[in-house]
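step=encode ok
step=design start
structure_in=
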């Protein structure tokens, strides 16, 4: 089996078949980011529409990566798929990459909806758009590293769902990704910086012209995101239980 076939199998198992057999699951991927967006639009009387759209992208990408945890745990513990893959030519990296691509496909309805809205409400230069895409990519890579690590350590799908919901809430609901961090009073603002999504939101809002940041803060935010992503990937590769 070549690598393309291995990737295709992972995408079919984790995205295409589920989307075909259970179309209702697609509603959840769209409603989750848009529900927060609508709330922010109504509360701010439309002033934070662009910020909310960018926050919806961050939430969708991070949640897509975290969904990998529950999916991998389900396939590993309930269907024993990982046992079969371990004994096959498929290696850990190909399996993880294929499942990650499947999560992106699964999140496409939300991403396409947000993309259409961004053309109307978010005005980005080409350079700013490239920077925003880089932020989203880092968010996704960071979350799949976390998801893969927790999935290999989890022994039950219920436990995986608990981890996934907890981390998604801590990283996408509480931090200021749908609104500006300046709305948070001191000293509570320092607590927001414990979440990597805060740095992603700051960079995105700065690129969109919604938040003015000194160049040092922009650089620190990039360093935090890149450094944490690399650290989590190293940790997931070294600490995850693949063959046990």
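sequence_out=
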């Amino acid at each position: 089996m070549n690598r393309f076939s291995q990737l295709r199998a992972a995408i079919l198992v984790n995205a295409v078949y589920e989307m075909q057999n259970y179309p209702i699951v697609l509603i959840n991927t769209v409603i989750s980011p848009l529900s927060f967006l609508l709330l922010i639009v109504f509360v701010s009387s439309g002033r934070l529409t662009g910020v909310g759209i960018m926050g919806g992208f961050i939430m969708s990408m991070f949640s897509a990566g975290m969904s990998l945890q529950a999916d991998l745990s389900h396939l590993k513990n309930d269907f024993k798929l990982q046992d079969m893959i371990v004994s096959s030519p498929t290696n850990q990296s190909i399996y993880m990459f294929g499942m990650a691509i499947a999560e992106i496909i699964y999140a496409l309805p939300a991403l396409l909806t947000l993309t259409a809205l961004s053309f109307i409400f978010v005005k980005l230069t080409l350079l700013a758009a490239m920077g925003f895409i880089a932020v989203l990519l880092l968010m996704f890579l960071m979350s799949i590293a976390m998801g893969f690590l927790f999935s290999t350590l989890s022994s039950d799908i219920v436990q995986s769902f608990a981890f996934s919901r907890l981390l998604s809430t801590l990283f996408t609901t509480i931090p200021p990704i749908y609104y500006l961090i300046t709305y948070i009073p001191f000293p509570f603002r320092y607590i927001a910086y414990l979440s990597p999504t805060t740095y992603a939101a700051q960079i995105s809002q700065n690129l969109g012209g919604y938040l003015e940041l000194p160049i040092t803060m922009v650089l620190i935010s990039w360093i935090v995101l890149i450094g944490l992503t690399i650290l989590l990937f190293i940790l997931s590769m070294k600490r995850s239980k693949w063959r046990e």
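step=design ok
step=annotate ok -> The two ends are 23 Å apart (CA to CA).
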